[in-house]
């Protein structure tokens, strides 16, 4: 059993007869009243995200998990296929178990969180950043910028990202997978 002081991003807990992964949390100590922890939980079975508040010191039932490196192979509709990089076994996961499936390109190595009790995959963690090529974007018009003007761009995985006006088709860009935002242009 864990308590609210053990809450961290990525922790898997049992809550309301389901397994949830903590995707955000904030410890709050108001001037009046007891402290509490505000969390955002994502169900690993349905993908549904809920907000919940735990009072300080509340007991939570954590799930023992292992992490393994898997390589993304391909997808068929909403089913994504991965291969373990150590023993080459393959698993299939549904799209709702993935945090940002639209930023994942074939060959990407991800971390799969597996429940140690029944060896079922719970969720997939992307690397902090991915580098993708811009396949389509409008050319930026010089002179119409006041501050930080952006334009939509489509990357090689099909995801839409807002990028600065100087980004052109064929440029490789670094994207933060946590927020799905442009970080920088990569020079070859």
General description of the model:
The chain has no helices and 16 strands. With 188 residues, the protein is mostly beta strands. It has three domains: 2-62, SH3 type barrels (Roll), CATH 2.30.30; 65-125, Nucleic acid-binding proteins (OB fold (Dihydrolipoamide Acetyltransferase, E2P), Beta Barrel), CATH 2.40.50.140; 130-186, Nucleic acid-binding proteins (OB fold (Dihydrolipoamide Acetyltransferase, E2P), Beta Barrel), CATH 2.40.50. The strands form three sheets. The chain has a six-stranded antiparallel β-sheet with strand order 1-6-2-3-4-5, with no helix packed on it. It has a five-stranded antiparallel β-sheet with strand order 9-8-7-10-11, with no helix packed on it. A hairpin with a 2-residue loop joins strand 7 (65-76) and strand 8 (79-84). The chain is flat and about 55 Å long. The mean pLDDT is 84.
CATH architecture descriptor name of the largest domain:
Roll
Task: Name the average pLDDT.
Answer: 84
Gyration radius (Cα, Å) is 20 Å
Kindly state the number of beta strands.
16
Question: Which features characterize this protein?
Answer:
188 residues; mainly beta; OB fold (Dihydrolipoamide Acetyltransferase, E2P); six-stranded antiparallel β-sheet; five-stranded antiparallel β-sheet
